[in-house]
Amino acid sequence: MSTSNLPTVQPTPFDELEKKLQRLEANRKRWVETPASARAALLRRCMETTLAVADRWAEVSARIKGYEYGSAGHGEEYLGGTLPTMRNLRLFAEALEENGQPSVADKWKRPDGQWVVRVFPTNLIDKLLFAGTTCDIFIEPGKEPTQGRIYRAKTAGSIGEGGICVVLGAGNQSSIPPMDVLYKLVVDDEVCILKMNPVNEALGPIIEEALRPLVEEGYLELAYGGADVGAFLTDHALVRSIHITGSAATHDAILFGPGEEGAKRKAERKPRIQKEITSELGNVSPVLVFPGEWSEKELDYQARQVASMLAYNCGFNCNGARLVVVADGWAQRERFLSLVKTKLAATPTRTAYYPTARKVWERFTEKYPNALKLGVVRNSDALPWTVIEDVKPEAGEFALENEPWCGIISFVTLKARDASEFAREATEFANERAWGTLAINLLIDPRTEKALGDRFEQMIAELRYGGIAVNCWTGLNYGLVNATWGAFPGHPPEDIQSGRGVVHNGLLIDHPQKSVVRAPFIIQPTPAWFTDHRNNVELGRAMTRFEAAPSLLKVPGVALKALKG
């Protein structure tokens, strides 16, 4: 697809920004007082307007990224763009129709007293479309598994003042900006001004069309431009909170200021603005591969999955696979790592559309000059898939502490003779030496998991990550929307790492600590997030439409699209 005929969007003038903020302020209290049922009706209308622009949304997003029409990249713009946005709208509408108290599948206490809530599957359709897949939300220790805090408070007669939130949109996945807005509106009771990222600002008018009912009611405004526009908004007196999806450096520049003065403020823990800031800021995401006796089919499948965890969206995902972690005592270690490289070599390279990509890639390859470059680079805007082998699992290692915002993955070997030792060593490595706490993936065959028993469950409880995926990619945590999405809680502003707070959380669970998604060791048919899926455009389009009006009668049609993958 050509990027030459993309819609052009001009920066929003400061006087217009002021008018937008004044309009939001005029409607702030009205949003707070809007009953849950009326909010649900608004979201239902947004589902209709989102469906009307879904094909154009996916096509424009693919053009921004230089993906060919009908390619795997084009399909991903449904799967990572229109589909989760539609699902978020539906889940929030359903939750609001239950006054913030939608049904959950189950809840229980762990032996240490921590509550766990099963939020997926919740119905037969979930079970049919995602057979064997579950999602559990762990509640912060000492807290109860309640739901819909602000709606419970309103029922009890306590209505807050609300506020205006500046949402600084992400430039990678097109669903992030609208979904962040939905969370702030529905869960935090705040009206929003969404500033699009310059990388994907051409999509802004389409998102505005998709969420037109919220715009027309005065609860959402959109803005465009660079850092100056962002600074005008974040510093404005009418703004109560800020939500960032981006980098820790951006977070620090907003909170403490740029340059030496900002560094001094950060060191002294003296932020320049006093506003609530929530954020999702990336991760050097590990893939922990448990040693076991795998068949050739299992080795091949998991190598495909790991390669896809990196290549999806050209490597521009905050939960993209960055560290493949294996045990030195695993007899199949070399075979597996060789297969991962083979799969990456067979994966078509893509336009590295993010402006910083080449500089990041050059920085890493200068640090690791023996890095292996794979794939056929077809144009000057593409970068090879790049593997850094034999990365040392030691504090201070560059690849462990810096997120490679491009198609780079590193191999790390831990000293462990068996799965039990690996569980211990990998937990310590992931918690203490890999930067960030957003997302982690665990691959473990059912025989090994059964042999580990409670030790594996204890490891899940010990991992300090906001999103944990067992035998699947944390992209599923993101896309299910039932899960929460955000860093493990507890990062102070001066050491923000992966951020603070969560989004998504489709069933409005209070006090979430982390979400754990589990899937079968091998999923049939080919999962939608595999970059070698042969029908992901049609599947993504069908699933977006399905989410707009799900029904058991439509399941066979979606399944047929999936079977062609």
List keywords for this structure.
43% helix, Aldehyde Dehydrogenase, Chain A, domain 1, six-stranded mixed sheet, 565 residues, alpha/beta, Aldehyde Dehydrogenase, Chain A, domain 2, eleven-stranded mixed sheet
How would you describe this structure to a colleague?
There is one protein chain. Helix content is 43%, strand content 16%. It folds into 3 domains: 10-101 and 148-246, 3-Layer(aba) Sandwich (Aldehyde Dehydrogenase, Chain A, domain 1); 249-279, no CATH class; 286-475, Aldehyde Dehydrogenase, Chain A, domain 2 (3-Layer(aba) Sandwich), CATH 3.40.309. The two termini are 23 Å apart. The protein is of the alpha/beta class and 565 residues long. The longest helix has 30 residues, at 36-65. The chain has an 11-stranded mixed sheet with strand order 1-2-3-19-15-14-9-10-13-12-11. It has a 6-stranded mixed sheet with strand order 6-5-4-7-8-17, with helices on both faces. Strands 16-18 form a two-stranded antiparallel ribbon. It is globular. The model has no long low-confidence stretch (mean pLDDT 96).
